[in-house]
Design a protein that fits this description.
The complex is a heterodimer. Chain A is about 40% helix and about 15% strand. By secondary structure, chain A is α/β, with parallel strands linked by helices. In chain A, the strands form three sheets. A seven-stranded mixed sheet of chain A has the order 4-10-9-8-7-5-6, sandwiched between helices. In chain A, strands 1-2-3-12 form a four-stranded mixed sheet. In chain A, a hairpin with a 2-residue loop joins strand 2 and strand 3. Chain A is globular. The mean pLDDT of chain A is about 95. By secondary structure, chain B is mainly alpha-helical. Chain B has one domain: ACP-like (Non-ribosomal Peptide Synthetase Peptidyl Carrier Protein, Chain A). Chain B is about 55% helix and about 0% strand. In chain B, helix 1 packs across helix 2 and helix 1 packs across helix 3. The chains are: A alpha/beta, B mainly alpha. At the A-B interface, strand 6 and helix 6 of A face helix 2 of B.
Chain lengths: ~400, ~80
């Protein structure tokens, strides 16, 4: 026995996922990337339909120019934490922009989206306090719970009544509890019943943090997310999000309607003990945020694609993970081989998507995840629908 | 609040059957992951079923060291005793 023996099941899974074709669905090697929607894989140009580049801002002229200018004037990195030598004007201005956009007093920028959850959740709830988390939450949420000294209890996915029972059992301790949910779940693309979650949370005097990683930029007024869309910004306590999806960079943020949130800068280990995001990343993110807040054109274009695509895949007989159309469409299969066949078939036709299989998927489902971008053309969407139509005849998804 | 020990074991076994219907008879010292092949999602489903049936909340950390059916029953009993 040695330290690597425990990874044997992972090696088996990797082999199963790569045996069918030459290109692996795990860590698919991109030879080159030409634009927000095209890359070269295995020497062949492909259409990207498996990224999180929802607004296509990775290649926007203003974000690229801002990053280049920041490198020329401020250098490539900060080499320090925000608590030491890495606290630049750009970091503080970006935080001010997020706070102003939400109309809230406090915003903190983290070095990644993962660290935003880690940093906010682990510091907000500590020893003798409670974290009530949705069972299907992202790994960063569950890891944040491990880092925290709070008592963690899971409740059933998207089930406010189940949360209510758990808060009820806590009695007075519910007032020392943080409820953690996502607004839009990234695997199946399903939305949380946020209004009900907020009502249950407030009924028991707890606080709630909502992860809008996959909804910020696409939903609500100015793209501020589903909490804003539902008019919940005066009731939700914290919103967390990432720069690496609709904003096209890397990093994360947490905004709060409580001014005391600023104190987390002195308490949050994932904020304190890591280097701050480098100047080009902050500059590009600021440009992307400004672009996102400036108008609805990108969102309108994305939503036009979403409605067209969602209608088409349902008509083709695919089993879809969510009844709410959104930027992520999950095609579901009971059999792993069916999902692998579809993923490989799409790639053979020049369309890159994501393959997801148990144990990292909810309810043991095998999933081909397709994500759309405002940078896709009408022809791109048409091509995806056409290829999915051809493959539906071979794979017979209805029988899944 | 307390439930008789046999009640706890019965509930845990019912929850196991729901989470993994294909599994046959299981002894108390059977390892849930390495021997029965339960993945983390199935274990989580099982825990939630136990919580609902016994009307308790089981902290994630309280079952971190529960690898067998007997160990899981012991963990659940400790949560019940503390409730």
């Amino acid at each position: 026995m040695n330290l690597f023996d425990k990874f044997a099941p992972l090696a088996e899974l990797r082999n199963a996922l790569t045996a069918r074709g030459r290109v692996s669905s795990v860590a698919t090697p991109m030879d080159n990337v030409q634009s927000a929607t095209t890359a070269t894989i295995d020497g062949k140009r492909v259409l990207l339909a498996g990224t999180n580049n929802y607004l296509g801002l990775t290649f926007a002229p203003e974000t690229r120019a801002a990053a280049i200018k920041a490198i020329e004037t401020l250098g490539t990195g900060t080499t320090g934490s925000r608590m030491a030598s890495g606290n630049y004007l750009g970091h503080r201005e970006l935080e001010r922009s997020f706070a102003e956009a939400f109309g809230w007093p406090s915003a903190i920028v983290f070095s990644t989206g993962y660290q935003a959850n880690l940093g906010a959740i682990s510091a907000l709830a500590g020893q003798g306090e409670y974290l009530l988390v949705d069972a299907d939450g992202h790994a960063s949420i569950h890891d944040a719970c491990k880092l925290s000294n709070a008592t963690t209890i899971r409740f059933r996915h998207n089930d406010p009544e189940n949360l209510d029972r758990r808060l009820q059992r806590l009695g007075e301790d519910a007032r020392r509890t943080l409820v953690v949910v996502e607004s839009l779940y990234s695997v199946l693309g399903d939305r949380a019943p946020l209004k009900e979650f907020v009502e249950v949370t407030q009924k028991h005097g707890a606080m709630i943090i909502v992860d809008e990683a996959h909804s910020f930029g696409m939903f609500g007024p100015k793209g501020l997310g589903i909490c804003a869309e539902l008019g919940l910004l005066d009731r939700v306590d914290f919103v967390v999000g990432t720069f690496s999806k609709s904003l096209g960079g890397v990093g994360g943020f947490c905004v709060s309607r409580h001014a005391e949130f600023e104190l987390l800068r002195l308490a949050s280990r994932p904020y304190i003990f890591t280097a701050s995001p480098p100047p080009p990343v902050i500059a590009a993110t600021q440009a992307a945020l400004d672009r996102l807040l400036a108008g609805d054109d990108l969102r309108e274009r994305l939503w036009r694609h979403i409605h067209r695509f969602y209608k088409a895949v349902n008509a083709l007989g695919y089993r879809v993970g969510s009844t709410d159309p959104g930027p992520v469409t999950a095609l579901l299969f009971n059999e792993r081989d069916q999902a692998i066949a579809l993923w490989q078939g799409l790639l053979s036709e020049g369309i890159y998507t994501n393959l997801m299989v148990p144990p990292s998927t909810p309810a043991g489902l095998n999933i081909v995840r397709i994500s759309l971008s405002a940078a896709h053309s009408d022809e791109d969407i048409g091509r995806m629908i056409e290829v999915l139509g051809t493959l539906a005849k071979q794979i017979k998804p209805i029988a899944a | 609040m307390a439930a008789a020990p046999d009640r706890v074991e019965a509930v845990v076994r019912e929850a196991l059957k729901l989470a993994a219907p294909q599994i046959g008879p299981v002894s108390g010292d059977t390892h849930l992951a390495s021997e029965l092949g339960l993945d983390s999602a199935q274990v989580m489903d099982m825990i939630m079923e136990i919580e609902d049936r016994l009307d308790i909340s089981i902290p994630v950390a309280s079952i971190a060291e529960a690898h067998t059916l007997d160990q899981l029953c012991d963990s659940v009993r400790r949560v019940l005793e503390a409730a």
